[in-house]
Design goal:
Number of strands of chain A: 12
Distance between the termini of chain A: 44 Å
Number of helices of chain A: 12
Oligomer: homodimer
Structural class of chain A: alpha/beta
Strand content of chain A: 15-25%
Helix content of chain A: 40-55%
Chain lengths: 333, 333
Amino acid sequence: MKLNINLKNAQYPVYLERGILSKISQYVNLQRKIMIITDTNVPKNYATTLQSQCKESYIYRIQASEHSKCLSVFEDICRTLLKYHFSRNDCIIALGGGVVGDLSGFVASSYMRGIDFIQVPTTTLSQIDSSIGGKVAINLDDTKNIIGAFYQPKAVFVDFDTLKTLPRRHYYNGLVEALKAGLIYDKKLFDIFENTNIDDHLEEIIYRSLCVKKDVVEKDEKEMGLRKILNFGHTIGHAIESYFDLTTYYHGECVALGMLYFIDEDIKKQLLPIYEKMHLSQNVSYNKEKVFQYIKNDKKASGNLITTVQVKQIGKASLVPMDLQQIYQILKG
Amino acid sequence: MKLNINLKNAQYPVYLERGILSKISQYVNLQRKIMIITDTNVPKNYATTLQSQCKESYIYRIQASEHSKCLSVFEDICRTLLKYHFSRNDCIIALGGGVVGDLSGFVASSYMRGIDFIQVPTTTLSQIDSSIGGKVAINLDDTKNIIGAFYQPKAVFVDFDTLKTLPRRHYYNGLVEALKAGLIYDKKLFDIFENTNIDDHLEEIIYRSLCVKKDVVEKDEKEMGLRKILNFGHTIGHAIESYFDLTTYYHGECVALGMLYFIDEDIKKQLLPIYEKMHLSQNVSYNKEKVFQYIKNDKKASGNLITTVQVKQIGKASLVPMDLQQIYQILKG
């Protein structure tokens, strides 16, 4: 399968195919310097499979942790690129999950003011969501994605086979973004979660999720309006993630908690059994005052206002600007 | 005077007027959070003149040094923006020279993936060259501008009055970029340097230089081709600057040295008396082997090739790809 992402200043293909990891050189030019950025969770043979297709390649392996999305790792990668004399015409491949993709993308966007960048997502989270759309970023202290850019990859390769080695907790964590896509934009996708065996429909789930993202991002690349719906669950979700030092709970797990604040009761009744199916915790206790402090630093805040995303009907989202006090009330319940 | 810069995805005005520093709020929205980034060389009353026009403003003062264009200062500014809850709709003003502009611009390009940014250049270098065109960057170790972005300001305010307090060495340093603009694109501008008193024609020199830059950048924003002519003198110049630890000689002084390698003898004969008029040294000794090492890391390198800029006729530049060995020969003379 193939999708084309068509933006104002960038077009790029997303290839979805089992085993495509070993065929990437058929699609993109690997006859130049290639820096493969990956992490300690990604099986080593994935990187060597890539390397065998390259003329001159290097591997930079980060610790598998949200904390690797920081300025010091960013700096070290840039210094490594410089050490190997990477030029503007060379290329970075992000091989891994969302952390690897976000960090690598920000390096690619800023090293020499921008070099080529290819996404090879190997987790559900990155295949479903973070590898397309061009949002790249790193964290500062415990505030997520506060330094970044809009920077599109040259191509994205989704190899479903790489999901076989993914731990189940990671697997479900990423699927939360697909469930979100269903809730805000695609009732049929939501129905798959509600009525079928998820594993049996994985490829369809990923494909449909990417179609949602493609459609939304093509209409509003820079998040001036519509794209904000993709932040459903993220305002409170990000804050919970930060509150737990970005490590205790995974991104999707926190988004799942965040979504519960902005849906009607009847939808909640439909949603909770799906959470159970996905082994997502609904009962996580946190200090709401402290979580609120993180919300105040959210990128989506504009002065005192934050655009929240609400779902009152499955498959349809609405944007509702709220002041911080209203969000505080919702958070307190 | 006013110029409009018209790029594919950005349009912005450049206002040139004595005393405009005290009237900026008439042109842009200062009724939001404003971070004024400036340096220890810029007279303090310039910042307070700006502050008096703002609703809520903060001043971040960096050390006046090329070394301030580094990741640790970048990080501290981002942390300060976060501390004061700057949102996507707030704004950064760069008040100072090229260092302040490049650094502030990179902060603006990446904080929350991009916030508004206004340039108020107060040196000849920044008024003539660095404040328009959208190249923003910081250095890594002693490699110049290796981390950055193409990010356009919302407006540029050139107040000639601010040049009154500029030390003469800085003044001439910046004018090298105007002389460069004349050499590569505007013979009349070169004639002003050759035949008249520079001080008496300062406003015209700045205006004409900006017209050159506007024309070139509008034709090739991302430096795919033509824009490379603006790098005339910079390949060797940057390397000399790095060799001297970015501090001993100023940027323009090094560019002046770099230009001498890529012009014909007869032009050199015309140029050297102008250098004398501008108190630019022609006899700086440096270790050419070591300078060559810095050239290898140049952003303009592509594999083994670097696009050099040559001037064989005043007002016209040509792009000549050379391999590193050829540049080595030229450098060795």
